[in-house]
From TrEMBL:
It comes from Pseudotabrizicola algicola. This is DNA mismatch repair protein MutS. ATP binds at G619, P620, N621, M622, A623, G624, K625, S626. SUPFAM superfamilies: DNA repair protein MutS, domain I, DNA repair protein MutS, domain II, DNA repair protein MutS, domain III, P-loop containing nucleoside triphosphate hydrolases. SMART domains: MUTSac (SM00534), MUTSd (SM00533).
Length: 867
């Protein structure tokens, strides 16, 4: 056995080997050491190898999915070695013959299909990047849903496209490993280098044609050699990991360059589109707006948010669908009621195709198609987008009828469990079940007869997989059983039980087992026939699943718009950007949940008359500058994703690119300081933004010396105005920059209003035209809880600095004299001493221990007169 294990292990390097032994997957040697630590399970020993004990650990087969998920999340790959024959067959070759085993699947982050291993509301993409001569392409697939897409993608575009897709695993040729490795690491994706042969475009074309059963890929569109290479590498890797059982991939779709709004990784992170900075979904835009009720609808929403469209016709069609369902509240609620009963047909279909499914997946197809038929009549007067979706909902009546007749209402998950074929569907199966069930009642009658015959009331007839049916009594009744050797035949004695059998019991056992096994075999045959019938209709079923997702998303966005008072935006080919009473959807949701009062809405007008149009925003920290910047970026993104927006009105000229540089942190792994990260992100914006981009920048240059920072911020704003000529919101604490509004035609000053009251600052969160005259930093520090002595000293230093700025000739000497710039500043000078009161003078001469009670009382009266 160990020789077989080592042979399989050698054939699958780089993966932990789950070696099937009965009801357990076992691991040995280094695999056992690594798995025991990663899974926090017991490490034992089994036998010896080269004179040393062999480390071993194992996990139960029935609970393997949970352990697989843990290993995948910790960066492992797992090879599953199953028993390929019955142990009884192996024994026919000799008593010491080893059961034949081999790897049936390689489990990797990008090839998961099990429901327990996947997030139902997110895609699980496997991506591949290829370069052929001067062309490059990126292909990606989700084998759990069958989606396959490809697009041209130069190396410089790999990072933003991978940020959009968030794949779990990226395939590259071994010659490009170093180019893509840092990008994959940033995205948290596993990187898998493959041999050059996997990316050979000639072989790749043959693989793709064989997969889709076509003579040429031209039936699906025109693909260049790099695109064919990337898709072929995906198929080759799937063939390797699935051991020949290829998933049910849909024909490839080529995405055009420029079809979606370009959003780089830093912007996605800063705007928290699908994931919050903390790492989870809480606090993200996606969570705040997700009103979908199906897993497929949720995945479609994530795709739309990750890649807002740049096609005006597509955007308007989506707005029209949402508007129709906003106006038809009754229809919307009826549709959502049906949609709540739609399972995840895409993933059920994928599991059935890979033969990893079961009767419950067949029931999911039945339920989804039944709801599709119920939804179709409701879509007769729907706008174009919904009407086109409705056309894909019909045509499966025969399949639905077959599944309804064949399956019970709540089938088990696995076919091996049996009991999923409904009574009346197959007469032969019904008769076999009757024999099986009758045999069980016969066992009950036999038990009663044997109790009477032996005089042992506690006699039980039991069953296990080793002995079959047997009679069990306690040792105290063994003598009574042995007294009738012609009836009861001894089989086994254990510590607490004695077991017997009879000739009649052996005969009925054979009948029952044959009937039970035959019934299960008949059910398995029916399962396979139903599975084939479903897979024969996989194309129309997939189309219906996508149509239901489209309807669900439109209903979810309409429900959001109606509940939150969102409005339909106007998106056109102009350069306009006018938002009236805009709000931040995530912050507004948080305020409502906290009961903290309403969100203060604000306007933003980057007028079309002036291109470029830039608002220079000043004001104190905590006043809402960053929120204002982000909300306008999110409104543009939501509008082009096809959603209504959180504003009273919105007119948005098509946005080709969205850039955000808000906040920064160290990147210690690459030796980058906060300021370096800030400058790298700013450089990317200035080098890429076109005249249809929207850029939001916050506090450029704050990570370095004052004059350096001011110079960089000043030059950055000028570059946006003169070179990029884009729409931008630029927040800063450098009040000197407000002078640019008078020098650059497209720059306007705006500020976040505050109010001072009795030394405190009150944030109004209102954005107004004009410039702030100060930053209120000391007041904010006081609100944050700095010691009062620090706040007082900061005020004194600030006044001295401001005086120095007003008196430039004396500034240098003033700064030299300020204790702020000394190594150890002295304590603040004490204030004038307070005058000594008469009460204090009298008390100073009193000796409390010498006072009698009467003296103390007189002293109180005397002190009172002195007040």
């Amino acid at each position: 056995m160990m020789a077989q294990y080592l042979e399989i292990r050698e054939a699958n390097p780089g993966a932990l080997l789950f070696y099937r032994m009965g009801d357990f997957y076992e691991m040995f040697f280094e695999d056992a050491l690594a798995a025991a630590e990663a899974l926090d399970i017991a490490l034992t020993k089994r036998g010896f190898h080269l004179g040393e004990p062999i480390p071993m650990c194992g996990v139960p087969v029935h609970a393997a999915e949970g352990y697989l998920l843990t290993l995948i999340r910790k960066g492992f790959r797992v090879a599953i070695a199953e028993q390929l024959e019955d142990p009884a067959e192996a024994k026919k070759r000799g008593s010491k013959s080893v059961v034949r085993r081999d790897v049936v699947r390689l489990v990797t982050p990008g090839t998961l299909t099990e429901e327990a291993l996947l997030d139902a509301r997110r895609h699980n993409y496997l991506a591949a990047w290829a370069e052929v001569r001067d062309k490059a392409a990126l292909a990606w697939a989700d084998i759990s849903t069958g989606e396959l897409r490809v697009m041209p993608c130069a190396l410089t575009r790999v990072a933003p496209e991978l940020a959009r897709l968030a794949p779990r695993e990226v395939l590259v040729s071994e010659i490009h490993d170093r180019d893509i490795a840092p990008i994959a690491e940033d995205m948290g994706a596993a990187l898998t280098p493959l041999s050059r042969g996997s990316f050979d475009s000639v072989s790749a074309e043959k693989r793709l044609c064989a997969l889709f059963g076509v003579g040429s890929l031209e039936a699906f569109g025109t693909f260049d050699r790099a695109e064919i290479s990337a898709m072929g590498a995906l198929v080759d890797y799937l063939d390797l990991t699935q051991r020949g059982k290829l998933p049910l991939l849909r024909p490839p779709v080529r995405e055009p360059v420029g079809g979606a709004m370009q959003i780089d990784f830093a912007t996605r992170r800063n705007l928290e589109l699908t994931q919050a900075l903390s790492g989870g979904r809480e606090g993200s835009l996606l969570l705040a707006i997700d009103r979908t009720v199906t897993p497929a609808g949720a995945r479609l929403l994530e795709r739309r948010i990750s890649a807002p469209s740049c096609d005006l016709n597509v955007i308007r069609a989506r707005h029209e669908a949402v508007r129709h369902l906003v106006e038809q509240a009754g229809l919307r609620e009826t549709l959502r009621g049906h949609l709540r009963r739609v399972p995840d047909m895409d993933r059920a279909l994928s599991r059935l195709a890979l033969d990893r499914g079961g009767p419950r997946d067949l029931a999911a197809i039945r339920a989804g198609l039944a709801q599709a038929g119920a939804i179709y009549p409701l879509m007769q007067d729907a706008p174009t987008l919904l009407a086109e979706a409705a056309d894909a909902l019909l045509g499966q009546d025969a399949l639905v009828g077959m599944l309804e007749d064949a399956l019970v209402a709540e089938p088990p998950q696995m076919a091996r469990d049996g009991g999923f074929i409904a009574s009346g569907y197959d007469d032969a199966l019904d008769q076999t079940r009757a024999l099986r069930d009758e045999g069980r009642s016969v066992i009950g009658r036999m038990q009663a007869d044997y109790c009477e015959l032996s005089g042992v009331a506690g006699l039980k007839i039991k069953h296990n997989n080793v002995l079959g049916y047997f009679i069990e009594v306690t040792p105290t009744h063994e003598a009574a059983m042995r007294a009738k050797p012609d009836v009861f035949i001894h089989r086994q004695t254990t510590a607490g039980q004695v077991r017997f059998t009879t000739v009649d019991l052996n005969e009925i056992e054979t009948r029952i087992l044959n009937a039970g096994n035959h019934a299960l075999e008949l059910e398995k045959q029916h399962y396979e026939n139903l599975r084939r019938a479903v897979l024969d209709q996989s194309g129309p079923i997939g189309a219906a699943a996508r149509a239901l997702a489209e309807i669900d998303l439109a209903c979810g966005l309409a429900d959001l718009a109606a509940a939150e008072n969102w409005s339909e935006p106007v998106v056109d080919a102009s350069h306009a950007f006018k938002i009236v009473a805009g709000r931040h959807p995530v912050v507004e949701r948080a305020l409502k949940r906290q009961g903290a009062g309403p969100f203060v809405a604000n306007d933003c007008c980057l007028t079309e008359a002036q291109t470029p149009a830039i608002w220079l925003l000043t004001g104190p920290n905590m006043a809402g500058k960053s929120t204002f910047l982000r909300q306008n970026a999110l409104i543009a993104l939501l509008a082009q994703a096809g959603s209504f927006v959180p504003a009273a009105e919105a007119h948005i000229g098509l946005v080709s690119q969205l850039f955000s540089r808000v906040g920064a942190a160290d990147d210690l792994a690459r030796g980058r300081s906060t300021f370096m990260v800030e400058m790298v992100e700013t450089a990317a914006i200035l080098n890429q933004a076109d005249d249809r981009a929207i850029v939001i920048l916050d506090e450029i240059g704050r990570g370095t010396a004052t004059y350096d920072g001011l110079s960089i911020a000043w030059a950055t704003l000028e570059h946006l105005h003169e070179t990029n000529r884009c729409r931008a919101l630029f927040a800063t604490h450098y009040h000197e920059m407000t002078a640019l509004a008078g020098k650059l035609e497209g720059v306007e000053n705006a500020t976040v209003a505050v109010k001072e009251w009795e030394g405190d600052v009150i944030f109004l969160h209102e954005v107004r035209k004009g410039a702030a005259d100060r930053s209120y930093g000391v007041q904010v520090a006081r609100l944050a809880g700095l010691p009062q002595s620090v706040v007082d000293r900061a005020k004194a230093v600030l006044e001295a600095l401001e005086k120095g700025e007003r008196d430039a000739p004396k500034q240098s000497a003033l700064i030299d004299d300020l204790p702020l710039f000394r190594a150890a500043p002295p304590r603040p000078a004490p204030g004038p001493a307070a005058k000594t009161s008469a009460v204090e003078t009298r008390l100073r001469d009193i000796q409390p221990d010498e006072l009698t009670p009467m003296d103390a009382l007189r002293l109180v009266y005397d002190l009172k007169q002195l007040l």
